[in-house]
Design goal:
The chain is an alpha+beta fold. It has one domain: Ribosomal Protein S8, Chain: A, domain 1 (2-Layer Sandwich). It contains 5 helices and 3 strands. The protein has a 3-stranded antiparallel beta sheet with strand order 1-3-2. α2 packs parallel to α4 and α3 crosses α4. It is globular and about 35 Å long. The termini are far apart. 29% of the residues are buried. The model has no long low-confidence stretch (mean pLDDT 91).
């Protein structure tokens, strides 16, 4: 079943900091999880199978927690969060920081 979920953030800048303002990272997330990601201003919309949308949200949740802890998100941090979801690792980015 296809699901659509919109995640709200404080500002466009806060959201962009979660993917290092690099749209290629969002494309990597789309390809890895089989979802479609649309972003505007301070929100991101995720479309796809319910389980995959949940996984994508977990990636953004991890990135947001890390950002709030003062971590500057780059390609490595984004990939770490994505890998923790796709590989179903017990440790995720929020645990590592």
């Amino acid at each position: 079943m296809t699901e659509s979920r919109t995640l709200q953030f404080d500002s466009a800048r806060s959201l962009q900091s979660l993917y290092a303002s690099d749209l290629k990272l969002l494309k990597t997330l789309e390809d890895s999880l089989g979802v479609r990601v649309t972003t505007r201003e301070g929100w991101v919309k995720i479309d796809g199978a319910a389980e995959q949308v949940d996984r994508a949200q977990r990636v953004f949740d991890q990135l947001e927690v890390a950002r709030q802890k003062g971590v500057t998100i780059g390609k490595h941090e984004f990939s770490y969060a994505l890998d923790s979801v796709t590989e179903a690792r017990a440790e995720n980015l929020s645990d590592a920081v």
